[in-house]
Design a protein that fits this description.
The complex is a heterodimer of chains A (277) and B (159).
Chain A: H1 2-11, E1 15-18, H2 24-29, E2 37-40, E3 50-53, E4 56-60, H3 65-69, H4 74-77, H5 79-84, H6 91-94, H7 99-105, H8 111-118, E5 122-127, E6 130-135, E7 140-142, E8 145-146, E9 153-160, E10 166-173, E11 183-191, E12 197-205, E13 212-213, H9 215-221, H10 228-241, H11 252-276
Helix pairs in contact in A: 9-10, 10-11
Chain B: E1 4-10, E2 13-19, H1 25-32, E3 51-54, E4 57-60, E5 73-75, H2 89-96, H3 106-119, H4 125-131, H5 143-157
Parallel strand pairs in B: 1-5
Antiparallel strand pairs in B: 1-2, 3-4, 3-5
Classes of the chains: A alpha+beta (277), B alpha+beta (159).
């Protein structure tokens, strides 16, 4: 990893980091990127691992999506990952693509950035001046633009495992299985012993420049008891704050409609899981 | 950029050749290894025609660089038939049920289906459709392809 950092530091923006290559190699093929140097992380030891530690799920940057799917027991702890990861591309993409690559690529419609926001993740970066932690909320700056310095790489992503009394869920809508989501919503709710919501996090993908949290929707839920009316109010609050772009796959109005539907579904699923836990 | 000498295993045999860092594994297989069964459709990871198995897992060989496969094990459509040329059950089923017309996409479908059936010997139709969703066919329209995979699964389960 030191060598990779040194190469990246020396070449700066002339170098691009190659992780799973499922986004970068198409960009190269289409000549949308033509770096002087590719720094391939695939043979660096120890960058692909999944560890549970002190309430965190620590995922090495070079962990393939498929390896996350294969971890045992995630369904009980973080069902949101079991919901979301199979929706990433197709099987051949998940066999090769990496968690860290998806985070660093910062595609506004990709699942991992939305999951990172919902699970209060930190991105562990390593650069020529050492390591630093970047909160997910400060990491995604603009479409395909992250907060890394030119000499930095993503080393690991730490997702906070929601504790007892919590429920998590991810849902998305796409035209065909495996396509990028038109809109996706992640929900993480904590329900206290009195049945009231002690905290709620909602994130959205596919609605603009980056994955985003939806604080207006979260506020509606806090202190309430997640009734269907609360869920509807939160969904309405979320869709009131978004202004998604139109594309050939769906108009802005349709995507706004989907925001309400997806948030509602994610919250109901998260609620039911919190109650069943 | 100068070429790099690499050795990899393809369908059980070692292949030695040189590749520039920019050369995709798909191009290496076709042009250096001479295995033109792996087809290149879109060359940017959308169509699935170039799907192969890399260390037993399906990948799009247009999205892997040849130098990244050094020391690894590759399986292509040429590795499916038996030593006497007898077809793999998937190939038999595709042939019988007309799971192909022009055949361009077929190698990618076959390799994707090989991985599916090795992991899930009894998939239902929905699982087959989901597994094949990353492969595009512009002739037959998938129905016969799905039926062929289900038929091959039945036969491969029989002792």
């Amino acid at each position: 990893m030191e060598e990779a950092v040194a190469l990246k530091a020396e070449a700066g923006d002339d170098a691009l980091v190659l992780a799973g290559g499922q986004s970068l190699i198409p960009l190269l093929a289409l000549r949308l990127a033509s770096p002087a140097l590719l720094v391939d992380l695939n043979r660096i030891e120890g960058m692909a691992s999944i560890r549970r530690e002190d309430g965190w799920l620590r995922v090495g940057a070079m962990t393939r999506h498929r390896e996350v799917e294969e971890v045992g027991g995630l369904g009980e702890e973080v069902p949101i990952l079991v919901d979301a990861v199979p929706l990433i591309g197709h099987r051949a993409i998940r066999n090769r693509g990496t968690v860290g690559g998806s985070i660093a690529h910062a595609d506004p419609a990709a699942e991992w950035p939305g999951l990172a926001l919902a699970l209060d993740a930190t991105v562990e970066a390593v650069g020529s001046r050492g390591t630093r932690s970047i909160a997910a909320e400060e990491f995604f700056l603009a479409p395909f633009t992250n907060a890394l310095e030119p000499d930095e790489l993503v080393r690991e992503i730490r997702f906070r495992v929601p504790g007892p009394g919590s429920g998590t869920a991810f849902v998305e809508h796409s035209r065909r299985h495996g396509d990028f989501a038109l809109v996706g919503a992640a929900a993480v709710v904590h329900v206290a012993n009195d049945g009231k919501v002690s905290s709620a996090r909602i994130s959205l993908i596919g609605i603009g420049g980056t994955a985003v949290r939806a604080p207006d929707g979260e506020r509606v839920l806090e202190g309430g008891s997640l009734t269907d009316a609360d869920v509807e109010a939160a969904a309405a609050a979320c869709l009131a704050t978004v202004d998604p772009p139109s594309s050939v796959h769906g108009s802005s109005a349709y995507r706004r409609h989907l925001v309400g539907v997806m948030v509602g579904r994610a919250l109901r699923l998260a609620r039911d899981r919190a109650r069943a836990a | 950029m100068s070429a790099i000498e690499i050795t990899l295993e393809v369908n059980g045999d070692p292949v030695v050749g040189s590749a520039e860092p920019r050369t995709t594994l798909a191009d290496f297989l076709r042009e250096v290894a001479g295995l033109t069964g792996t087809h290149l459709g879109c060359e940017h990871g959308v169509c699935g025609s170039c799907t192969i198995l890399l260390d037993g897992r399906s990948v799009r060989s247009c999205l892997v660089l040849a130098v990244q496969a050094a020391g690894r094990s590759v399986r292509t459509v040429e590795g499916l038939a038996g030593p006497g040329g007898e077809l793999h059950p998937l190939q038999e089923a595709f042939s019988e049920l007309h799971g192909l017309q022009c055949g361009f996409c077929t190698p990618g479908f076959l390799m994707t289906a090989v991985e599916l059936l090795e992991e899930r010997p009894s998939p239902d139709e929905r699982e087959v459709r989901e597994a094949l969703a990353g492969n595009l066919c512009r002739c037959t329209g998938y129905v016969n392809i799905v039926n062929a995979v289900l038929l091959a699964a039945d036969r491969m389960r029989e002792p």
